[in-house]
Amino acid sequence: METNMIKAAQAITQSRLTVALTGAGISVESGIPPFRGPGSLWEKIDPTEFAHIDAFMKNPARVWEVLMGAMKEILDTARPNKGHLALAELERRGLLSAVITQNVDSLHQKAGSEDVIEFHGTFATLVCMECGSATPSADIRLNALPPRCPCGGIYRPDCVFFGEAIPMDALERSREFASQCEVMLVVGTSAMVQPAAMMPVLAKQNGATVIEINPTPTPLTTGTSDIFLKGNAGPILTRLTEAIPIPARG
Protein backbone atom coordinates (compact mmCIF):
# COMPACT_ATOMS: atom_id res chain seq x y z
CA MET A 1 0.00 0.00 0.00
CA GLU A 2 2.73 2.48 0.96
CA THR A 3 4.57 1.93 -2.31
CA ASN A 4 1.39 2.48 -4.29
CA MET A 5 0.54 5.55 -2.20
CA ILE A 6 3.90 7.09 -3.01
CA LYS A 7 3.47 6.26 -6.71
CA ALA A 8 0.00 7.81 -6.73
CA ALA A 9 1.23 10.98 -4.98
CA GLN A 10 4.11 11.31 -7.46
CA ALA A 11 1.81 10.79 -10.44
CA ILE A 12 -0.55 13.54 -9.28
CA THR A 13 2.33 15.90 -8.46
CA GLN A 14 3.81 15.47 -11.94
CA SER A 15 0.49 15.57 -13.83
CA ARG A 16 -0.44 18.63 -15.83
CA LEU A 17 -4.13 17.66 -15.86
CA THR A 18 -5.80 15.44 -13.27
CA VAL A 19 -9.49 14.63 -13.07
CA ALA A 20 -11.50 12.49 -10.66
CA LEU A 21 -14.39 10.16 -11.35
CA THR A 22 -16.47 9.42 -8.26
CA GLY A 23 -19.29 7.00 -7.54
CA ALA A 24 -21.57 6.05 -4.67
CA GLY A 25 -18.69 4.68 -2.60
CA ILE A 26 -17.40 8.13 -1.73
CA SER A 27 -20.78 9.15 -0.28
CA VAL A 28 -21.41 6.03 1.80
CA GLU A 29 -19.30 7.59 4.53
CA SER A 30 -21.79 10.48 4.59
CA GLY A 31 -24.63 8.08 5.36
CA ILE A 32 -25.92 7.78 1.81
CA PRO A 33 -26.62 4.16 0.83
CA PRO A 34 -25.27 2.94 -2.52
CA PHE A 35 -27.62 2.02 -5.33
CA ARG A 36 -25.88 -1.27 -6.05
CA GLY A 37 -24.24 -4.02 -4.02
CA PRO A 38 -24.88 -5.42 -0.53
CA GLY A 39 -27.27 -3.26 1.47
CA SER A 40 -27.99 -1.09 -1.55
CA LEU A 41 -31.17 0.73 -2.44
CA TRP A 42 -31.89 -1.51 -5.43
CA GLU A 43 -31.88 -4.55 -3.15
CA LYS A 44 -34.91 -3.05 -1.40
CA ILE A 45 -36.64 -1.25 -4.26
CA ASP A 46 -37.11 -2.36 -7.85
CA PRO A 47 -35.55 0.42 -9.96
CA THR A 48 -37.71 -0.43 -12.96
CA GLU A 49 -40.80 0.17 -10.84
CA PHE A 50 -39.75 3.31 -9.00
CA ALA A 51 -36.71 4.86 -10.73
CA HIS A 52 -37.75 4.73 -14.39
CA ILE A 53 -39.07 7.87 -16.05
CA ASP A 54 -42.10 5.94 -17.28
CA ALA A 55 -42.98 4.98 -13.70
CA PHE A 56 -42.64 8.58 -12.58
CA MET A 57 -44.81 9.90 -15.39
CA LYS A 58 -47.46 7.25 -14.73
CA ASN A 59 -47.67 7.73 -10.97
CA PRO A 60 -45.45 10.55 -9.63
CA ALA A 61 -47.10 10.49 -6.21
CA ARG A 62 -46.17 6.84 -5.65
CA VAL A 63 -42.58 7.35 -6.82
CA TRP A 64 -42.25 10.35 -4.52
CA GLU A 65 -43.71 8.36 -1.63
CA VAL A 66 -41.61 5.22 -2.01
CA LEU A 67 -38.30 6.49 -3.41
CA MET A 68 -37.93 10.24 -3.74
CA GLY A 69 -39.21 11.17 -0.30
CA ALA A 70 -36.72 8.86 1.40
CA MET A 71 -33.88 10.13 -0.77
CA LYS A 72 -34.78 13.74 -0.07
CA GLU A 73 -34.74 13.18 3.68
CA ILE A 74 -31.28 11.60 3.52
CA LEU A 75 -29.77 14.08 1.06
CA ASP A 76 -31.13 17.17 2.79
CA THR A 77 -29.15 16.33 5.93
CA ALA A 78 -26.04 14.65 4.45
CA ARG A 79 -22.71 16.41 4.89
CA PRO A 80 -19.42 16.03 2.99
CA ASN A 81 -16.93 13.56 4.43
CA LYS A 82 -13.14 13.44 4.39
CA GLY A 83 -13.12 12.07 0.84
CA HIS A 84 -15.08 15.01 -0.55
CA LEU A 85 -12.95 17.44 1.45
CA ALA A 86 -9.69 15.87 0.21
CA LEU A 87 -10.72 16.26 -3.44
CA ALA A 88 -11.70 19.87 -2.79
CA GLU A 89 -8.28 20.43 -1.20
CA LEU A 90 -6.53 18.97 -4.25
CA GLU A 91 -8.49 21.35 -6.47
CA ARG A 92 -7.64 24.27 -4.17
CA ARG A 93 -3.93 23.41 -4.54
CA GLY A 94 -4.27 23.35 -8.32
CA LEU A 95 -3.70 19.59 -8.51
CA LEU A 96 -7.21 18.58 -9.61
CA SER A 97 -8.97 20.20 -12.55
CA ALA A 98 -12.46 18.71 -12.21
CA VAL A 99 -14.61 16.06 -10.59
CA ILE A 100 -16.88 13.90 -12.73
CA THR A 101 -19.44 12.40 -10.38
CA GLN A 102 -22.14 9.79 -10.83
CA ASN A 103 -23.69 10.93 -7.56
CA VAL A 104 -26.74 13.18 -7.28
CA ASP A 105 -26.07 14.43 -3.74
CA SER A 106 -24.07 17.62 -4.55
CA LEU A 107 -21.70 16.85 -1.67
CA HIS A 108 -18.67 17.74 -3.79
CA GLN A 109 -19.96 21.30 -4.15
CA LYS A 110 -20.76 21.47 -0.43
CA ALA A 111 -17.17 20.40 0.28
CA GLY A 112 -15.81 23.24 -1.84
CA SER A 113 -15.14 21.66 -5.24
CA GLU A 114 -15.88 24.23 -7.92
CA ASP A 115 -15.76 22.34 -11.22
CA VAL A 116 -18.11 19.39 -10.75
CA ILE A 117 -19.61 17.57 -13.71
CA GLU A 118 -22.79 15.90 -12.48
CA PHE A 119 -23.07 12.95 -14.84
CA HIS A 120 -26.52 11.97 -13.58
CA GLY A 121 -27.75 15.41 -12.56
CA THR A 122 -28.56 16.44 -9.01
CA PHE A 123 -31.23 15.87 -6.40
CA ALA A 124 -30.31 19.19 -4.77
CA THR A 125 -32.54 20.96 -7.29
CA LEU A 126 -36.16 20.29 -8.19
CA VAL A 127 -37.58 21.37 -11.53
CA CYS A 128 -41.22 22.06 -12.35
CA MET A 129 -42.36 19.87 -15.22
CA GLU A 130 -44.85 22.54 -16.28
CA CYS A 131 -43.05 25.90 -16.21
CA GLY A 132 -39.44 24.72 -15.88
CA SER A 133 -38.63 26.78 -12.81
CA ALA A 134 -35.96 25.37 -10.50
CA THR A 135 -35.83 25.49 -6.71
CA PRO A 136 -33.56 23.99 -4.03
CA SER A 137 -34.84 20.60 -2.91
CA ALA A 138 -34.25 21.54 0.73
CA ASP A 139 -36.78 24.39 0.41
CA ILE A 140 -39.64 22.10 -0.63
CA ARG A 141 -41.82 20.41 1.99
CA LEU A 142 -43.46 17.07 1.28
CA ASN A 143 -46.74 17.82 3.00
CA ALA A 144 -48.56 16.69 -0.14
CA LEU A 145 -47.35 14.30 -2.81
CA PRO A 146 -46.27 14.89 -5.44
CA PRO A 147 -44.86 18.30 -4.47
CA ARG A 148 -46.08 21.06 -6.73
CA CYS A 149 -44.79 24.34 -8.04
CA PRO A 150 -46.82 27.53 -7.39
CA CYS A 151 -47.93 27.25 -11.03
CA GLY A 152 -49.50 23.87 -10.25
CA GLY A 153 -46.95 21.77 -12.08
CA ILE A 154 -45.31 18.72 -10.52
CA TYR A 155 -41.75 18.96 -9.25
CA ARG A 156 -39.22 16.36 -10.28
CA PRO A 157 -35.58 16.08 -9.19
CA ASP A 158 -33.11 17.49 -11.70
CA CYS A 159 -31.45 14.09 -12.05
CA VAL A 160 -31.45 11.36 -14.66
CA PHE A 161 -34.08 8.64 -14.32
CA PHE A 162 -33.67 5.23 -15.92
CA GLY A 163 -34.89 5.63 -19.48
CA GLU A 164 -33.46 9.14 -19.83
CA ALA A 165 -30.30 10.27 -21.58
CA ILE A 166 -27.21 11.60 -19.86
CA PRO A 167 -27.09 15.42 -20.23
CA MET A 168 -25.11 16.08 -23.39
CA ASP A 169 -22.94 18.82 -21.90
CA ALA A 170 -21.93 16.53 -19.01
CA LEU A 171 -21.12 13.69 -21.39
CA GLU A 172 -19.10 15.89 -23.75
CA ARG A 173 -17.08 17.58 -20.97
CA SER A 174 -16.40 14.21 -19.32
CA ARG A 175 -15.13 12.75 -22.57
CA GLU A 176 -12.95 15.80 -23.15
CA PHE A 177 -11.35 15.57 -19.70
CA ALA A 178 -10.92 11.79 -20.00
CA SER A 179 -9.17 12.07 -23.35
CA GLN A 180 -6.84 14.89 -22.25
CA CYS A 181 -5.99 14.12 -18.62
CA GLU A 182 -2.64 12.69 -17.55
CA VAL A 183 -4.05 11.19 -14.33
CA MET A 184 -7.55 9.98 -13.55
CA LEU A 185 -8.56 9.27 -9.97
CA VAL A 186 -11.35 6.68 -9.85
CA VAL A 187 -13.00 6.76 -6.44
CA GLY A 188 -15.79 4.61 -5.03
CA THR A 189 -17.39 3.43 -8.25
CA SER A 190 -18.26 -0.12 -9.24
CA ALA A 191 -17.45 0.73 -12.88
CA MET A 192 -20.61 -1.09 -13.92
CA VAL A 193 -22.76 1.81 -15.13
CA GLN A 194 -22.28 3.05 -18.67
CA PRO A 195 -21.30 5.42 -20.13
CA ALA A 196 -19.55 6.69 -16.97
CA ALA A 197 -17.59 3.44 -16.66
CA MET A 198 -15.96 4.13 -20.03
CA MET A 199 -14.24 7.31 -18.83
CA PRO A 200 -11.29 5.54 -17.13
CA VAL A 201 -10.93 3.29 -20.17
CA LEU A 202 -10.86 6.33 -22.45
CA ALA A 203 -8.30 7.98 -20.19
CA LYS A 204 -6.12 4.86 -20.25
CA GLN A 205 -6.34 4.61 -24.04
CA ASN A 206 -5.04 8.17 -24.26
CA GLY A 207 -2.04 7.51 -22.04
CA ALA A 208 -3.30 8.59 -18.63
CA THR A 209 -2.31 6.95 -15.36
CA VAL A 210 -5.45 5.55 -13.73
CA ILE A 211 -5.45 5.52 -9.92
CA GLU A 212 -8.29 3.50 -8.43
CA ILE A 213 -9.51 3.82 -4.84
CA ASN A 214 -12.01 1.16 -3.82
CA PRO A 215 -12.52 -1.23 -0.90
CA THR A 216 -12.72 -4.19 -3.29
CA PRO A 217 -11.50 -4.83 -6.86
CA THR A 218 -13.73 -3.82 -9.78
CA PRO A 219 -13.74 -4.58 -13.51
CA LEU A 220 -11.23 -1.73 -13.85
CA THR A 221 -8.69 -3.12 -11.40
CA THR A 222 -7.14 -5.60 -13.81
CA GLY A 223 -6.29 -4.13 -17.18
CA THR A 224 -7.25 -0.47 -16.74
CA SER A 225 -6.06 0.74 -13.33
CA ASP A 226 -2.32 1.39 -13.01
CA ILE A 227 -2.39 1.91 -9.25
CA PHE A 228 -4.94 0.30 -6.93
CA LEU A 229 -5.35 1.76 -3.44
CA LYS A 230 -7.53 -0.58 -1.43
CA GLY A 231 -9.77 1.01 1.17
CA ASN A 232 -12.57 3.45 1.81
CA ALA A 233 -12.50 6.78 0.02
CA GLY A 234 -12.22 9.08 3.05
CA PRO A 235 -9.15 7.58 4.74
CA ILE A 236 -7.32 6.80 1.49
CA LEU A 237 -7.89 10.23 -0.09
CA THR A 238 -6.85 11.91 3.15
CA ARG A 239 -3.60 9.94 3.23
CA LEU A 240 -3.01 10.60 -0.47
CA THR A 241 -3.51 14.33 -0.04
CA GLU A 242 -1.16 14.37 2.94
CA ALA A 243 1.46 12.48 0.91
CA ILE A 244 1.57 15.25 -1.70
CA PRO A 245 3.93 18.07 -0.62
CA ILE A 246 2.44 21.55 -0.44
CA PRO A 247 4.59 23.84 -2.60
CA ALA A 248 6.50 26.44 -0.61
CA ARG A 249 5.41 30.01 -1.23
CA GLY A 250 8.05 32.53 -1.98
UniProtKB/TrEMBL annotation:
<dbReference type="InterPro" id="IPR050134">
    <property type="entry name" value="NAD-dep_sirtuin_deacylases"/>
</dbReference>
<keyword id="KW-0808">Transferase</keyword>
<keyword id="KW-0520">NAD</keyword>
<dbReference type="GO" id="GO:0070403">
    <property type="term" value="F:NAD+ binding"/>
</dbReference>
<protein>
    <recommendedName>
        <fullName>protein acetyllysine N-acetyltransferase</fullName>
        <ecNumber>2.3.1.286</ecNumber>
    </recommendedName>
</protein>
<dbReference type="InterPro" id="IPR026591">
    <property type="entry name" value="Sirtuin_cat_small_dom_sf"/>
</dbReference>
<feature type="active site" description="Proton acceptor">
    <location>
        <position position="120"/>
    </location>
</feature>
<keyword id="KW-0862">Zinc</keyword>
<dbReference type="GO" id="GO:0017136">
    <property type="term" value="F:histone deacetylase activity, NAD-dependent"/>
</dbReference>
<dbReference type="InterPro" id="IPR026590">
    <property type="entry name" value="Ssirtuin_cat_dom"/>
</dbReference>
<feature type="binding site">
    <location>
        <position position="128"/>
    </location>
    <ligand>
        <name>Zn(2+)</name>
    </ligand>
</feature>
<dbReference type="InterPro" id="IPR003000">
    <property type="entry name" value="Sirtuin"/>
</dbReference>
<dbReference type="GO" id="GO:0046872">
    <property type="term" value="F:metal ion binding"/>
</dbReference>
<feature type="domain" description="Deacetylase sirtuin-type">
    <location>
        <begin position="1"/>
        <end position="247"/>
    </location>
</feature>
<dbReference type="InterPro" id="IPR029035">
    <property type="entry name" value="DHS-like_NAD/FAD-binding_dom"/>
</dbReference>
<feature type="binding site">
    <location>
        <position position="151"/>
    </location>
    <ligand>
        <name>Zn(2+)</name>
    </ligand>
</feature>
<feature type="binding site">
    <location>
        <position position="149"/>
    </location>
    <ligand>
        <name>Zn(2+)</name>
    </ligand>
</feature>
<feature type="binding site">
    <location>
        <position position="131"/>
    </location>
    <ligand>
        <name>Zn(2+)</name>
    </ligand>
</feature>
<dbReference type="Pfam" id="PF02146">
    <property type="entry name" value="SIR2"/>
</dbReference>
<keyword id="KW-0479">Metal-binding</keyword>
